[in-house]
Amino acid sequence: MSRSCKFAVAVHIASLLATSPGQALTSDWIAGSVNTNPVVVRRLLSALAKAGLVASSRGSNGGSTLARSPERISLLDIHRAVEADDGPALHHQPPNPACPVGRNIQSVLVRVMDRAEAAKEAVLATTTLAEVTGALAAAEK
Amino acid sequence: MSRSCKFAVAVHIASLLATSPGQALTSDWIAGSVNTNPVVVRRLLSALAKAGLVASSRGSNGGSTLARSPERISLLDIHRAVEADDGPALHHQPPNPACPVGRNIQSVLVRVMDRAEAAKEAVLATTTLAEVTGALAAAEK
DNA sequence: TGTAACTGTTACCGGTTCGATTACATAAAT
DNA sequence: ATTTATGTAATCGAACCGGTAACAGTTACA
């Protein structure tokens, strides 16, 4: 396993909540659909709750629901909630400031990589959770 | 150090080669500008050579040069050369096929994440190495 | 010819991230 | 009280990355 699949699982979780409106789902039940451990689900639910996308209640009959309607939750909201944003991945050690390339490459790279990341996020921003559940329903029939 | 900075270093290396046209640079010299180990540089040069972006000659007076002009090398070329493309990061374990969400979420996710990745790559594809070195020169004055 | 310079590749170490798992404190319904 | 949940910390194994040493192969040149 190479990269993080937190985003994929978080969208999965949010889709489950969106298709069970008004009903609180437990981390155990969600884990059964995702096919993973309930603690993994709770960690992601915790991140989604901190971002204000999900509300959880504890105790018996507890569980989680969406904090707002699926039309008003974008995949970028979910992505930002569960994946850390460390900015573009630059050199570990600062390049040689005595070299004309070395002393300027990072600022140039940041500009380009930020633009590329913004283009990616624009796609996620214009895709709503409601569109995802719509596509899920369309795939069923 | 969390993520890979291979792309950043590879663009750095390519910029050095682009600003020394016709002159073969050694991995030792390049490592001095990048501020890292020559083997790290050679690993990236090897990947760039396999992608046909760089030509290297061995032995005394050896070194590396660009295999084509900086105007005809895009940052996407460099990105594809040094960073593995594993496709979108989906679930480790396959989701539960007995669940309507679980059995369809991955195909829906692939469509969205592929679109997002394509948007990012479009930015890198329209940025040439020549533009990078132009920005480097502009930052100098 | 032989030596110095340079590439190409492998192997290994130390640090970090990730998912899975166990454990346990806390909270709420009945 | 007991049961059912969440919330969170700790730990484990696997994977990836950058740095480093080691070494084989190649080329220029004295």
Describe the 3D structure:
Two copies of one chain form a homodimer. Chain A has 141 residues and is mainly alpha-helical. Chain A has a domain at 6-86 and 128-140: Arc Repressor Mutant, subunit A (Orthogonal Bundle), CATH 1.10.10. In chain A, 53% of the residues lie in helices and 6% in strands. Chain A has six helices and two strands, in the order αααββααα. Chain A has helices at residues 6-18, 27-34, 38-50, 75-82, 105-125, 129-140; strands spanning 54-57, 63-66. In chain A, strand 1 (54-57) and strand 2 (63-66) form a beta hairpin. The longest helix of chain A has 21 residues, at 105-125. Chain B binds a DNA duplex (30 and 30 nucleotides) through helix 3. Chains A, B: Keywords: Signal.
The overall pLDDT average of chain A reads: 96
User: Hey, which two chains have the biggest interface?
Assistant: A-B, 58 and 58 residues
Structural class of chain A: mainly alpha
Count of DSSP H/I helices of chain A? 6
* Largest sheet strand order of chain A: 1-2
Major beta sheet summary of chain A: 2 strands, antiparallel
The fourth-level CATH homologous superfamily of the domain at 6-86 and 128-140 in chain A is Winged helix-like DNA-binding domain superfamily/Winged helix DNA-binding domain
Low-confidence stretches of chain A: none
Q: What form of chain A results from the Cα inertia axes?
A: elongated
- Oligomer kind: homodimer
User: Helix and strand succession of chain A?
Assistant: HHHEEHHH
Give the DSSP E fraction of chain A (strand runs of 2 or more residues): 5-15%
Measured between the Cα atoms of the first and last residue of chain A, the distance is 33 Å
Classify the helix fraction of chain A into a percent range: 40-55%
User: What's the CATH first level of the domain at 6-86 and 128-140 in chain A?
Assistant: Mainly Alpha
What is the CATH architecture term of the domain at 6-86 and 128-140 in chain A? Orthogonal Bundle
Give the tally of β-strands of chain A.
2
CATH fold-level topology of the domain at 6-86 and 128-140 in chain A = Arc Repressor Mutant, subunit A
